[in-house]
């Protein structure tokens, strides 16, 4: 569905939001861990964009540091050495500063974190491969319940985990009941007694489950469900660790974007995406109050969902923005320009695979340039499968689908039509390269100041070991404060 262009939305304080020079406010997904990729070689256009971003930072620092004040009238330190308690940041008088590409916000000086690879990979044993699609997720949940084992990798042998033939029969019976698929024979189970092997056999019969819009990462419990949206690339499965660390009776459902599987194309507008997610969510919980959250641009889509529910008179008890930048134009035009080029978009999102799956995927520009354009998606997928980032039978076009989905969100030019009247809880990563102000811009889209909770990690490691425990604890606290 095509939408007519809208005028810039009014700011809650009465003045219009300024758009970029091209007339749109851009949103950036977190491919490449939320940072523009400065390529090696002679690509001067991208290098100019990165240099322009650096000049914005220096100019912003010279203009006065962070532009917010605490109740005591003194600006808090935006980069404390130790993550502090949550706080509500109150807005003071704001004077926007403008550049050719939109408002320039002053940013805090920082010490850049060490490389994630250095922190996570050295002297650490390899982690088990976690579920990568709905079939592996369902099998993981069945095995975990029957074997009473929580730390299961998809390549682990069922019998090495403590299973026996009686439990194998129980697994087969449960699979037939829960997966709505023809039962596998005992012989097929014994041929490949791993989650990965059985998942391949199930998908060979049907991939229909991959298209379902609601993924129950943690289906158990009687509490009000928490609905969570992934980043612009649409991968919901890297929140598996987070879902496992919520309260045992807290259902955790991820909302999967159309376009990654099946024949339906992705949406071109955030508003349409949000409306579709609301319908999917209401199939699980017909009425509010709702608990919503999102990571990266998933937080932006969650905001639009909250606005649409607000217009319908539905209550949103929690809107949790996990290191997501609010829909404002400043500092994001360069990423949008990068993804206009299909090759640059492939590099940008391909390098992001390392972040989402916590595994290294070397992707050199000169290597990818040597590959025929129509073969590049398959080329990247082959290397990703070799490193267990995707299932062994994942279609080659999955990479191009990811790139298309992320690029569409970048180009959507989303600006909220009105202000959100509820409280936004902003979970800010201490070493974030995406949210470089204390509030990430969320004060711009709500009539209330955001509740800020600063957490250890960066934009990606925030949701991975070892920092995911802290994020889960803070989310549990926020849900408890919602009192639903």
Automatic annotation (TrEMBL):
Q: Compositional bias (Basic residues) spans?
A: 50-66, 107-121
What Gene3D superfamilies does this protein map onto? ACP-like, alpha/beta hydrolase
List, alphabetically, the SUPFAM superfamilies matched. Answer: ACP-like (SSF47336), alpha/beta-Hydrolases (SSF53474)
Question: Disordered: where is this region?
Answer: 1-128
Outline the extent of the Carrier domain. 130-206
Query: Which PROSITE patterns does UniProt cross-reference here?
Result: CARRIER
Compositional bias ranges of the Low complexity kind = 1-11
Protein name, per record: Amino acid adenylation
